[in-house]
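Q: Could you predict the 3D structure of Type 4 fimbrial biogenesis protein PilX N-terminal domain-containing protein?
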Amino acid sequence: MPHPWPAGPCGWRERGVTLLVVLVLLLILGLSAAAVLRDSASGERFAHNLRQQQLAQQQAELALRHCEAELRKPDGSEAGLAPGAFLRDPMLAQAGLARIAWDAAPAWRLGANWTGMGGPASGRVVLPQELADLPLSGSAPGRRPECMVELQELADGALVHVITARGFSPAYPTAAGVDPTALPASGAVVWLQSMVLLGELVPAGDASARRPIVDRLWRRILQPPLP
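A: Sure. Here are the predicted structure tokens for Type 4 fimbrial biogenesis protein PilX N-terminal domain-containing protein:
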């Protein structure tokens, strides 16, 4: 009866080569599976981070539009307005806004102005919760968006409103942001800014009138303010 395995050293050598080939193939399959799982996890993290950035961008845009809309309203200092016609957010009253010379450092660059620990607090507004909630996102932001307004004097003497806003994603920690430059463990924060030149309130005595926007520049702030 013939032996099932080849006899002699040559047979054992062939068996050893076959086993080695099988082990190499298993190693290749394992590495390929690990690479697929790693790529899948990286794709999920990228999609999550992109989603957080998009939601934070929407929150910052909400704050920016809110402050721009408030600045177009009369603030009660206009002549001819009836008593009680104070329509603008009191924190954005024209007389209380910081006025910055054209060659001076703007107020929005100071981190203390965003934490309430210094600087002009009258020009900073935190959006109400009902305005901050995005109906289509399915989740509320980790922190409500906010904006800061200051009067910037240009080189030609003209005055423009500089509106700086920041928005937070739902994953942004509620307690984070005491230091506006600190990076949270999760979530995202987006900074936006617009420079708005407003026209006169016409008619001057109409409390429902809105100032026209004569010119508007917009940008995204890539470097947040320093503390």
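Q: Anything worth pointing out?
A: Residues 9-71 form the longest helix (63 residues).
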